[in-house]
Design brief:
about 400 residues; alpha/beta; Archaeosine Trna-guanine Transglycosylase, Chain: A, domain 4; Transcription Regulator spoIIAA; Rossmann fold; seven-stranded mixed β-sheet; six-stranded mixed β-sheet; 20 strands; globular
Length: about 400
């Protein structure tokens, strides 16, 4: 017999509005025996059934919704159907040679991410409840992919984020099944990459910018390009493939710069696309002092905030980096700028860019506003699923 969680009267606003979480301070009581990680029923204060999900009272996010149907049966068949639905969606909306197949709450499998890099899967499990089902999910994925003629040669787990500790779990990293070469070659937008699924950031490569990288192609032919926070060189290489005359990619990580340089060679771009290991905040003022100007400047920083508590400091960082970037754009050139923090909501990010433009004495003409690729769907009312905001501006001098 499953336990039942009852909300406090007047609580549960997020889940009632279409979200997927219940916080610990919204729970009135739990009837029945349970172990953290179990599937339990959720009811409003008056007993009205609200669905089924994972319970973990060790976490502030104590309940994660799986289904709103009161008669749902959460078993292997249920999980397998969720997996099939996720794959069928990707086949309709994106190039699936490399893509995110499962995106947590947005695919109604809360707390887990699975990325496909060619014939390799990378799993990131961040919640106790779903962690107990991860091998069921992996096996279901292998089966549904095989039906489309796709054979998975290996699965690697990258559940090494600190957030697992908030769920009462230790970080986990390693092979799920037989060992294999973890340096995987993929092709995206005509660019070849070596993806390090073992030691790269997060799952090894940031798939969410796929369409945004393609969007810069039309801007870069015969242009001088600066790509800041280049990581493994993805925007820089897209600029190079698009015909840029010269590209400089900058990152503070020696490993990232080494991998980016290797990727440039893989694409035959070493003569036009080069990389430098440096702190972007230090380098941009130095480039300004030298009088350097670029046709296209790309700013793809890591999230400067991962909590609401540090949002003010993050705004300062985004304002500074955009001001410095704007000063390096030629009159009539382009700035591509983004944030990957869902705490930087669209209005706040736009306000921050506007303040940077004022400080740099530049006028901005918006070319495009974009967000994350379609394999990272945005589930309305689940705020954490909407995080990437990406602008392309033409930069003109004030006259």
């Amino acid at each position: 017999m499953s336990a039942t969680v009852y909300l406090r009267k007047g609580e549960g606003r997020t889940i009632k509005a279409g979200g997927a979480w219940v916080y610990d301070n919204e729970i009135d009581r739990i009837d029945g025996a349970y172990t953290n990680g179990d599937v339990v029923a959720l009811c409003d204060f008056d007993g009205y059934p609200m669905g089924w999900g994972f319970l973990n009272m060790h976490s502030k996010i104590s309940f994660r919704l799986l289904s709103r149907k009161k008669d749902a049966v959460i078993d292997e068949a249920f999980i397998a159907q969720r997996v099939r639905d996720a794959w069928n969606y990707r086949k309709e909306v994106i190039d699936t040679s490399s893509c995110r197949i499962i995106f947590g709450e947005a695919d109604f499998l809360p707390g887990i991410v699975v990325d496909k890099f060619s014939d390799v899967l990378v799993v990131e499990s961040l919640a106790l409840g779903i962690d107990q089902w991860k091998m069921v999910i992996v096996d279901a994925l292998k089966k549904v992919l095989a039906e489309d003629g796709i054979s998975i040669r290996g699965v690697y787990e990258r559940s090494d984020a600190k957030v697992r500790q908030k769920e009462g779990m230790e970080p986990a990293k390693g092979f799920l099944g037989a060992e294999f070469d973890t340096k995987v070659e993929i092709v995206e937008n005509g660019v070849r990459y070596f993806v390090d699924v073992k030691d790269g950031q997060k799952t090894g490569f940031f798939l969410d910018q796929k369409n945004n990288r393609a969007a810069i192609h039309k801007l870069c032919k015969n242009k001088k390009v600066l790509d800041c926070f280049t990581h493994t060189g993805s925007f820089a290489l897209n600029a190079g493939i698009a015909g840029a005359s010269s590209v400089l990619g900058v990152d503070a990580s020696d490993l990232a710069v080494h991998q980016a340089t290797e990727n440039a060679a893989l694409n035959g771009l070493s003569d036009r696309v080069t990389f430098q290991c440096a702190d972007v905040f230090d380098l941009l003022p130095e480039l300004e002092r030298k009088g350097e100007l670029y046709d296209v400047v790309i700013l793809d920083p890591p999230a400067f905030t991962k909590s609401r508590a540090s949002i003010k400091q993050a705004v300062k960082g985004y304002r500074e980096i955009n001001l410095r970037g704007l000063k390096l754009v030629k009159n009539g050139g382009y700035l591509c700028t983004c944030t990957c923090s869902h705490f930087m909501d669209p209005d706040l990010f736009a306000k921050t860019i506007r303040e940077a433009a004022t400080g740099a004495h530049k006028r901005l003409r918006q070319v495009e506003f974009r967000t994350q690729a379609a394999d990272h769907p945005i589930l309305w009312a689940a705020d954490s699923s909407y995080y990437l905001k990406f602008y392309i501006f033409q930069v003109v001098e004030e006259r």
